Amino acid sequence: MKETILKWIWQHLEYPNFKYDTSQLTELISQIDYNRGILDGVSKLFNEDDIVKIEIETLTDEAINTSLIEGEIFKRESVRSSFRKKLDKYFDGRSDTHSTRATDNLVEILIDSNLNKSNMQIERLHGWHNCLFEHARYDRLHKIDIAKFRSHSDMEVISGAIGHEKVHYKAVPVEKIESDIEKFFSYCNKSSENIYIKAAIAHIWFVIIHPYDDGNGRIARAITDYVLSRNTSTTQFKLYSISTAINSDRKGYYDILDKTTNLFLNKEFDLTSWILWHLGILNNAMEQSLKNIEYLVQKTKFWDKHRNQALNERQIKVLNKILDMGSENFEGGLNTKKYINLTKVSKATAVRDITQLVEFGCIEQIDGMSGRNVKYIVVV
To answer: What percent of the chain has pLDDT over 90?
Structure first.
């Protein structure tokens, strides 16, 4: 009788009783709690309309990046318009020409995962899956099951050219899906585990089960949002994007998934490394959000100071471009060539615009620069 080789994490005798070393997680959790506290106080810095704008931009980042991780590209304006229809009381949805059915559906998932605090259940999960694939009955050549769990057991995550394929993961057999999902729901709905650890475990556990033909990664990240949002107020979105942070380290994401779900690489059946990685991503997402909010504060102060100056549309566009990304992130500072590239004007017009911005005190020359090397920074 041939011996069964235990290769995948769900084959371990202790699955799904995951183990991890809490003592290695405390420092990161404390840092996350600190950043979360600052983010929770952000509402005091802005009026209601500004908070809505921050929420829309954060959610737009989340939607675009959770799709990019899977190789699907959405136009930012389409996603933003879909969110504005739902969240911006000033937006005229009847005149909208940017949103699509696909972006509307993706927005439905993210709003539900952030605001709907009710227990996770199968029909809700199937609803999310339907939103992802409402008009896509096939994944390339293969027909996929939509709004229901996959009906075949040979679900593998594969990469590589034909004849050189590498199997990164083989999912839970189809006959185990429903029982695993019941245990998964019980954990999501009832566990009193630290919420950041719980979000990390929920994320990878859903990936381990891999219950759908496609969309498992996007739904796993939506579940992460759901777990993290359950202890916030019912009307407040989280002001950070985990998928944006994950997408910035996409290779690291797939590497840590491989190392955690493969028992040849994870002989100890230990989730500590995965949770540490996930906590680090969460902390990075919060820190980036705090930077973005700082840029918004600087931008607000800047325009409070300069709102009455006679700036033209070109000057306003360039200033907003720099302020939105943070002056320190506008690599190399502003010069005539960059101004021309951003505004598509002649050199003479660019020089005249820049000279006026200096006179108004909007920008100043970087010390030590002269001739063709002259560069400017925005004065905030």
So the answer is: 76
